[in-house]
Amino acid sequence: MNPKKKSKYDVIILGAGIAGLICGTFLAKNGKKVLIIEQHNIPGGYCTSFKRKGFIFDAAVHHIGGCGKWSVVGRCLKELDININFLQLDPMDSINFPSFSVDVPAEIDDYVDLLKKRFPSESEKLSSFFKEFIGLYRATFSAERNKMLIKYQDLTYKEMLDIFFTNEQLKMVLSAQWGYIGSPPHEVSAIGMCQMLVNYLKDGAFFPVGGTQIFTDAIAQKFIDYDGQIMLSSRANNLLTEGNITKGVTTEKGETFSADIFVSNIDPRQTFFCLMEENAVDDSYLRKIETMKESVSFFLLYLGLDSKVDLKGLKRGFYHTSNNISFSDNGWFYISVPTNVDSCLAPDKKQIISVVVSLKDSYDDIEDWVAFKDKMKKYTICYLENFIPNIQDHIEVIDAATPKTLYRYTLNSKGAAYGWAVTVDQTWSNRLQHTTPFKNLFLAGHWTNPGPGICAVVSSGWRVANMVLNN
Ligand SMILES: Cc1cc2nc3c(=O)[nH]c(=O)nc-3n(C[C@H](O)[C@H](O)[C@H](O)COP(=O)(O)OP(=O)(O)OC[C@H]3O[C@@H](n4cnc5c(N)ncnc54)[C@H](O)[C@@H]3O)c2cc1C
Q: Per the UniProt record, which residue ranges are transmembrane (predicted)?
């Protein structure tokens, strides 16, 4: 990845997250001279892996939706001639509450049948709900403001569920995976939840063999094969503008590059408040960004365990700590055993447990991050002891990440996992658009449309590439 640097490019992309990489690869494939500038020493943003004592840990992303050949990621990879070996997760997930649990099958029809058997009095309503939900999902792919989108654009997911169901336990089951989008059912937009959930239920959840870095590296390699240039360990420091035109970018190391078009795959707060001169940006646009709220962040625990502990029975999925999903005391753990899916992630039949933990503490209230990390490690291991009482005796590697860690590696404000929170007022037409007040500056990634998650940011990067090519 040693580029022969030019001073002028057709397109410069800030950030080698998945949206930046996909956008860059489409542009490079179409003959554009593209430079991607990335602050970290590896590409991928949240879609990266790290190695400790032979264990390969995925830093954040656990699985990717829509990798089948007819779905968004699958089609995109085919267009770019990228081959990645995926394993489809089956069951897709498991949902666990203190009083009951449900395994979510890999096929959506099997899931609907399972729910109908479990909630026979809601059988007809389940058919109408899933018909509507899938219709809404399809509508999100249309360029026009379809009537389905208009119907649901102002509703939270809870409000949508209340239209169809009265059974509280069924509503809990259908809401239990909200952690994948970051806002609880009474806050998350119905459209946002639909995009995420139907994508996983209908188009499948997939794991790239070898870990998520394999997925990222395959895209980055294709970008390079198409003559794209990527500068790692290079932080963009300034965006130079004249009127409503972006002229150039300077890096922390003092290099300056110019281009006809710029794409920002980084946090818009950084793009417009930190990288640009004061007064360079339209005031009303800045005010809009200022009032928007970022999504949640998480605590993550990564454990490398010996081969003796039996983890076959530990189900991958959400473990809610309360039976009431709507209340703020509902915390959850997302537990996975990646070595149950791909044993090559650990040496000598050893195993990995990875846990994502929802947080009540707000970023700005945490003063001592070292103490916070320590407290959260103990809390999470204590929870795992419910399933593996002697887990402490089997740990060979332990690492952890706090919102501060997530910020450090990606510069997403407060370690936001999903860009802006996916609330009604920040989704769909209310999210930041790809275009900006600058004629030649576009936004791609989870801070813009269609939203967070790898499948969505693949779509975002692809869309922006098409906008640039048609510009
Ligand atoms: C804990 C966690 C678990 C998740 N699990 C999943 C999952 O299982 N499945 C899923 O689909 N999604 C998951 N997500 C969400 C998903 O990871 C993100 O929505 C997605 O990866 C965002 O991609 P992106 O391209 O928008 O940007 P990012 O991944 O945020 O990448 C932005 C890039 O820009 C770089 N950058 C920032 N500032 C600068 C600068 N000034 N100069 C140069 N470079 C810069 C960063 O270093 C980074 O590489 C998870 C997120 C988290 C945090």
A: none
73: Cβ below 6 Å to ligand 1?
A: no
Q: Is it true that the peptide bond before 91 is cis, omega within 30 degrees of 0?
A: yes
Kindly report the protein residue whose alpha carbon is nearest to atom 7 of ligand 1.
61
pLDDT tops 80 at residue 145? no
177 lines ligand 1 (CB under 6 A): no
- Look at residue 336 and tell me whether its pLDDT is greater than 80: yes
With contact defined as beta carbons under 8 Å apart, do 150 and 140 qualify? no
The answer, yes or no, to whether residue 100 has pLDDT greater than 70, is yes
Could you tell me if 12 and 40 lie in one domain? yes
The answer as to whether 30 is a domain residue is yes
- Beta bridge partner(s), residue 49: 58
Q: CA–CA separation, 454 vs 180, rounded Å? A: 11
State whether 177 and 124 are in the same domain. yes
- The answer to whether the beta carbons of residues 139 and 197 sit under 8 Å apart is no
How much of the chain is helix, strand and coil, in % rounded to 5? 40, 25, 40
Query: Is any ligand 1 atom within 6 A of the Cβ of residue 118?
Result: no
- With a 6 Å cutoff on the Cβ, whether 59 touches ligand 1 is no
* Nearest atom (ligand 1) to Cα of 418: 19
**Residue 88 backbone dihedrals phi, psi, to 5 degrees:** -85, 135
DSSP assignments along 329-342, one per residue: T--EEEEE-HHHH-
Alpha carbon 207 to its chain's center: 14
Phi-psi region of 53 (alpha: psi -120 to 50; beta: other; left: phi over 0): left
**CB of 266 closer than 6 A to ligand 1?**
yes
Ligand 1, atom nearest to 461 Cα: 25
Nearest CA to ligand 1 atom 34: 15
Q: Are residues 277 and 425 in the same domain?
A: yes
- Give the separation between CA 463 and CA 296, rounded to whole angstroms: 26
Mean pLDDT of the chain: 96
Mean pLDDT across 421-440:
96
Q: Output the residue whose Cα is nearest ligand 1's atom 21.
A: 46
pTM check: above 0.90: yes
Beta strands in 53-168 (DSSP E): 55-58, 64-65, 86-88, 93-97, 100-104
pLDDT score at 330: 73
Does ligand 1 come within 6 angstroms of the Cβ of 413?
no
Range of the domain at 230: 8-50+213-292+421-469
Report yes or no on 441 lying in a domain. Answer: yes
Report, as an integer, the average pLDDT of 429-456.
97
